[in-house]
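Example for tutorial group B:
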């Protein structure tokens, strides 16, 4: 498998200035763990190649050689951004077996074994997963015939061009011998160049239709939604896969003082402290060693590790990066995204 994890995560800034998008935390696990968990469900996938470009050392420090996660991991760092097609070719050097390719910001519950099975049954050169969306104009549409063969790609269509609501889900099975058409060391798009070449040459290029859980975590709204979907069990992942509906997950090493209020579902990690009179509202995520002081309210907010929320502060539907300090009587309103090591002095309103 090749995971395309080289993006800079510009839509998630300022959170990704110090943290590459593939390892932004979902609760207390770097995001790529969830993709690797999915790949590990297919015994035939014996190696994961991480195609990197932005802050590669940070990612390698998290996963090492893969022994801790139970699958071999290899790292390939692009010499320069090569686009999706160029990155796949560069990462697949020396690989002759079919490869599963995942965009590095997709969270899904897809049955990868079934995708591979279709690819083999159709003897396809390439198989692409398609998923339906409510607003197709924000994506590129993919048209198929009745037999599931890919007919056409329509990039970000206007309303009168919409012929389907199915989009490219960023998951493929590809045959490496077809990569000869991708030029070496040149930025090249798999979507705009490689896939159209398959259609032009009449090669077997098929769709796997998937209508289960799928999300691109690459914006603050979607990043927040992932946490809520897991708490609501729309996506099944620990630690909420084993909790009752609307229950909170509170680490045994967290300290919730008498008089504090915790309304589920929410997540409170190890070493966190919630002081007397503080309130943690539904869909909040309190990161490791984060302190919420007396009479403070945290509602629907994701606080990364090592933050402090001062007394009488109110933080609502926001995302707050690591090592942030919010003083007394601070107000942070819905939609705010606050980068690492930010200090908000007393009575600040964001």
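The residue assignment follows.
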């Amino acid at each position: 498998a090749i995971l395309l994890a080289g993006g800079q995560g510009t839509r998630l800034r300022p959170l990704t200035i110090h943290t590459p998008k593939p390892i932004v935390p979902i609760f207390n696990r770097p995001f790529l763990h969830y993709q690797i968990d999915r790949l590990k469900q297919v015994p035939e996938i014996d190696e994961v190649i991480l195609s990197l470009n932005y802050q590669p050392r940070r990612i390698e420090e998290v996963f090492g050689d893969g022994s801790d996660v139970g699958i071999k991991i290899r790292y390939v760092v692009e010499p320069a951004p090569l686009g999706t097609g160029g990155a796949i070719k560069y990462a697949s050097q020396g690989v002759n077996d079919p490869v599963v390719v995942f965009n590095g910001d997709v969270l899904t519950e897809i049955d990868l074994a079934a995708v591979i099975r279709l690819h083999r049954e159709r003897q396809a050169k390439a198989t692409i997963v398609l998923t339906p969306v409510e607003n197709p104009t924000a994506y590129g549409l993919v048209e198929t015939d009745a037999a599931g063969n890919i007919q056409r790609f329509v990039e970000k269509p206007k309303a009168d061009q919409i012929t389907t609501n199915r989009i490219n889900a960023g998951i493929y099975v590809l045959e490496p011998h077809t990569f000869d058409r991708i030029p070496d060391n040149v930025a090249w798009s798999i979507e705009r160049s490689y896939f159209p070449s398959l259609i032009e040459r009449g090669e077997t290029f098929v769709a796997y239709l998937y209508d289960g859980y799928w999300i691109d975590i690459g914006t603050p709204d979607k990043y927040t939604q992932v946490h809520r979907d897991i708490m609501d069990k729309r996506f099944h992942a620990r630690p909420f896969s084993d909790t009752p509906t609307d229950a909170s997950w509170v680490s045994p090493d967290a300290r919730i003082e008498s008089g504090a209020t915790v309304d589920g579902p929410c997540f409170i990690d190890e070493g966190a402290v919630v002081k007397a009179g503080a309130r943690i509202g539904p869909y909040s995520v309190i990161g490791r060693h984060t302190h919420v002081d007396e009479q403070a309210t945290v509602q629907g907010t994701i606080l990364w590790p090592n933050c402090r929320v001062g007394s009488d502060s109110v933080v609502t539907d926001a995302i707050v990066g690591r090592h942030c300090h919010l003083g007394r009587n601070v107000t942070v309103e819905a939609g705010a995204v606050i980068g690492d090591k930010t200090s908000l002095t007393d009575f600040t309103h964001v």
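The longest strand covers residues 166-174. Compare this with the pattern of hydrophobic and polar residues in the output above.
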